[in-house]
TrEMBL record, chain B:
GO terms for molecular function: protein-N(PI)-phosphohistidine-sugar phosphotransferase activity. Keywords: Sugar transport, Transferase, Transport. This is PTS sugar transporter subunit IIB. The keyword Cytoplasm does not apply. It comes from the Bacteria. PROSITE patterns: PTS_EIIB_TYPE_2 (PS51099). Residues 1-87 form the PTS EIIB type-2 domain. GO terms for biological process: phosphoenolpyruvate-dependent sugar phosphotransferase system. Pfam families: PTS_IIB.
Length: 158, 87
């Protein structure tokens, strides 16, 4: 792993990173965040609907840490390929009145195991609130990708 | 001691939370079996402590065992504070 790209940076290609000014609702945010994966045939449209239904049913548990949500559903809900996409919002969208979200990271897993390394990489990014703020401040997809690369390779040599 | 980390699908949030629960246990110098699962399976699985986002764990029956709800799933200190008195 030393010197190599983390699985997260391999999967989160630059064309799956989007920046937007604002969205009207968390549902719209999820549709937008997942749209590259639909266009690239990595997920079916029904996977997006399954994510929204799951949040409507269980509540906004996908808001994993302040400012960040990791919307996802089950492999059987229409995942075609292990994939991940990211949306950075300039103005937050609210998943509940006290949960503003600026970063949405859509996860699409094909089984119970293959995505675990991606999540472990993601944990390296999200464990530091300063790193989250740095990602939110980025103005280009390239910069977001570079930062994630930096955050996920520095500790992989351990 | 068995800690079951629960989320809606058992795939994403619960795995990240499981990693952080393990880190918190390491800091506390405590040992426990930690696994993650989805809410439906959690209802049928026995554990000493059920841990997850409030939206999720509040759906578990009150007589299940100890229920711990976590607000910031990336915060080792929150997890540590909430688990410490229970171990």
């Amino acid at each position: 792993m030393k010197g190599g790209l983390s699985l997260l940076t391999k999967l989160l290609t630059k064309d799956c990173i989007q920046l937007a000014n604002f969205v009207r609702s968390w549902q719209e945010a999820i549709h937008l965040a997942a749209s590259p994966l639909v266009q690239q045939h990595k997920i079916e449209q029904r996977y997006v609907e399954a994510i929204i239904q799951s949040i409507e049913h269980y509540g906004p548990y996908v808001v994993i840490t302040p400012k960040v949500a990791i919307p996802h559903a089950r492999p059987s809900d229409g995942v075609l390929e292990l994939a991940i996409s990211l949306l950075r919002l300039q103005k937050p969208v609210f998943f509940s009145p006290n949960q503003p979200v600026y970063l949405l990271i859509v996860l699409a897993a094909i089984d119970n195991a293959s995505h675990l390394q991606v999540l472990a990489d993601l944990a390296l990014v999200l464990q530091e609130p300063d790193q989250i703020d740095d990602l939110i401040a980025c103005q280009h997809a390239d910069m977001i990708w570079e930062k994630i690369k930096q955050y996920t390779t520095k500790e992989s040599t351990e | 001691m068995k800690i079951l980390v629960v989320c809606g699908s058992g795939l994403g949030s619960s795995f990240i939370l499981e990693l952080n629960v393990k880190k918190a246990l390491e800091v506390l110098g405590k040992d426990a079996e930690v696994t993650h699962t989805d809410l439906a399976s959690a209802k049928a699985e026995k554990a000493d402590i059920y841990l997850g986002a409030a939206d999720i764990v509040n759906e578990l029956a009150k007589d299940k065992g100890i229920i711990v709800s976590i607000v910031n799933m990336m915060s080792i200190s929150e997890i540590k504070e909430k688990l410490e008195p229970l171990l």
